[in-house]
Amino acid sequence: MSTTTPPRGFTTAILHSDRDATIEHGALHKPLHLSVAYGYRDARELAAVFQGRAAGYSYGRQGNPTSTALEAKVNAMEEGVGTITFAIVNQGIYYTNFDRNWSSLIIGVLLLAAVLMNNTFRQLALTYRPKKAKA
Q1: What are the pLDDT digits (tens) for 108-128?
Q2: Alpha carbon distances (Å) from 63 to 38, 53, 59, 69, 71
Q3: CB burial of residue 128 (10 Å; 0-12, 13-18, 19+)
Q4: Other CB atoms closer than 10 Å to residue 124's CB: what's the count?
């Protein structure tokens, strides 16, 4: 009897991809993390996270465990090198008292920019050829 598992199909791999990561608090699927602020023992710990010297989260709109799980799932679906997600807060635009048409335009332009960046990076990745080492 073989102990190796057969390769997963695309849908099965995506459906169960969050189970491949470390289980949080016994949950079978990643929970939603709605916290905006994260606490640390002292300011040096927080500074290390902000500066990228330590792993962690500093502010929810700059990333949280939920967005990290989404990025990992999209990356697995696309078989990519990395994924970045951006937080767009419609409520923030609403409270600026911009005309609703302008706020819709702003969000539309941001989404268009994201699509264009995605297409550009995808094209760069598909045409990338490593440099040959000099003999």
Answers
A1: 888 888 888 888 887 887 787
A2: 11, 16, 7, 10, 10
A3: exposed
A4: 9
Tens digits of residue pLDDT in 85-110: 876 666 666 666 777 777 778 878 88
CB 93 within 8 A of CB 105: no
Give yes or no for a contact between 45 and 54, defined as CB atoms under 8 angstroms apart. Answer: yes
Which amino acid type is present at position 57?
Answer: Y
CA distance 77 to 80: 8
Classify 36 as helix, strand or coil: coil
pTM of the shown model: 0.56
